[in-house]
Every structure is written in structure tokens, then in C-alpha cells.
What does this fold into?
Amino acid sequence: MRSWTAWLALGLGGFCLSWASILVKWCHLPALAVASWRLLLASLILSFWPAARRPCHLPWRVVLVGGLLLGVHFGTWIASLSLLPVYLSVTLVTTSPLWVALFARERTSPPALVLAFLGTVLLSGHSLRVDAQVQPLGVLLALVGAWSMTGYLLWARNHQPEAGHPAYALRVYATAALALLTVALASGTPMSGYTGEQWLCLLGLAVVPQLLGHTFLLLAVRFGSAGWASLTILLEPVGSILLAVWLLGEQLVAVQVTGLLLTLVGLAGLTRSVTKSDGCRRTR
It folds into this structure.
């Protein structure tokens, strides 16, 4: 039975992560600027934590690859939000459990794989056909965001327990931030001259989903398991969609709701199988 600490960390992590897409929409800024400042500000704040400044006993290439994968994830996903409504962008980008199961060739539930895949196809296909806000490039960017997060998770899993340490997080965030900043400056993206409200949204992105959300996710891993903590991935699209309906006025039709539910049920099945496999590995 999970401790109340794991349940609390799971719920708070999902709640904090759910605000990411809303804050991105409220920024009204170029994707590269938002992604760069989110990670730059998060790195700056995290650097004040003594534990994050401790030596990180990992080769530089491990940090570099992790940072580049994380940078691609945030850059492409945030860009997708300018081309897609929240419900579709967050659902696609949180399909990483599906791709982890496929790429890592883990023992999973075939029905769960089928449900997640069919739900994603149904949701995306119908949205592309009837929703004027939806553009194919946005769908591709969201999927690249999911694939890069899959690579990031698999890379971090191969280098535990160091990958869960604040010192690793600081170095990976800073690497991703510098990579995104380099691309932003090279492309002529304006990195200043924002309004006070836009700076507040950027700070909110750095604090709420980035620092608090990922911190609670690490706590869920500590008091539960990696598979258990991955349930947070399912809470993010649910929370984001509810917030988008409430705060942004987004609406879904029956077919889109059906595709969304199929995707989430499939991902829940995949997450459950990962949780079970975590438990089996612990007992060996």
C-alpha cells in the first residue's frame, strides 16, 4: 500500500505540471523564447539549493545528451502549442509511456498498446479534419516532443541513481537552456522587451511545472517507484484539459472525448504494467 506521502506527491506533481500549457498560452511569446527562459530561470533558482551545487559523478556526455534531449522536448512541445489547442498538444506529448514501451521493448499489455495507439490516431485524425486550429506541423512537433522525452527518460533510467539527484537536474536544465538560447539567438528570436505579465508567466513556468512539478515527481519516485511516479504523466493532460476548458474556453466534441479517453485508458494500462515490472525487479 502506498504511503500518504507518495499519494500527496503524485497529486501535487500532476497539479503543478498541468499549469504548463496554460502558462505557455498566456505568455504570447515565441516558443524558443518561452522554452529558453523557462529553463534558464529554473536553473538560476535551482542553483541556490546547496544539494544542486554538489559534484555530479557522471561523465559530461551523459549530462550533455540528457540536456539536449530535454531541450528538444521543451522546444518542440511549446512550439506545438502555438499550432494546436491544449487538449491535443498535451495528449500527444504525454504519450511517452507508449513510446517507452515500444522502443525499450518492455513486457507490456498488448490491449493497452492498441488502445493508446488507436485513441491517439482517432483524436489527432478527427481534430485535423474538423478543427481549424489544428495544423499537421503542430501534431508532428508534439510527437517529436513525446519522442525526445522518451529518449530522455530512457537515458536517465540507464544512469540511476545519479539521474534523480538535484545536481544532475541543475546541469541538465542548464545544458538544455543554453542549447535553446543558442538556437533562439541564432534565429533572431527576441529574448527581452516583454511585458510584466509575460515575465510573470515565464517565472510561473519555471517555478510551478518545472521546479515544483518535477520535484514532486522525484518525491513520488522516492516514496513509491518510477512506474508509480509515471502516473503523473496521466494526471497532466487531464488537469491541463480541465484548466483549458475553464480558463481558455476550449471545447471538445464527442469523438475527440472518445479518442482522449481511449488514449488515457491505454496509457494507464501501460503505466500499470511498468509499475508491476518495477515491483518484480525489486523482489529479485
